[in-house]
Amino acid sequence: MSKHVDGPIGTVAALVRSTFLVNAVYADSAREYGLTQQQGQLLCVLMAQPYGMSELGAVLGLAKSSLTGLVDRSERNGLVQRTPDPQDSRAVRVALTGRGAKLADEFYAETCRRVGELTSEFDPAERDTLAALLGRVVADNKVPTVFMEPEHLR
Length: 154
Hints:
Blueprint: H1 11-32, H2 37-46, E1 51-52, H3 53-60, H4 64-76, E2 80-85, E3 88-96, H5 98-117, H6 124-140
Antiparallel strand pairs: 1-3, 2-3
Helix pairs in contact: 1-5
């Protein structure tokens, strides 16, 4: 049985609960674009550049078999393509297709809008403080860049 607690919460509960909230927003956005949450993550990561499979697995935190299945499904849907790695003839790089890049751009913009709405009641100074503190948590824990800051918010 869960308890609903009103009022101030501590750092751990706030971080965990905010993770659930952001994941729910992200999953809803992905579903509306016909993607799984993992496919949405894959597209957003690949927006910056193509990745080798081992790099991609590390960035997404997926085991080799899970990543292979994700890339296979995304490739069948015409969203990504495997290309030979110019530095290693035995390896491949995963890149967005034209269709995948268009979908990634749309999904990314909408997801950024939705996540941004979570702090719509904050004034600019509160948003800056939250960003600085969470940015420090991310930097201190060496979280890979899996989602870029929207250009219009920089």
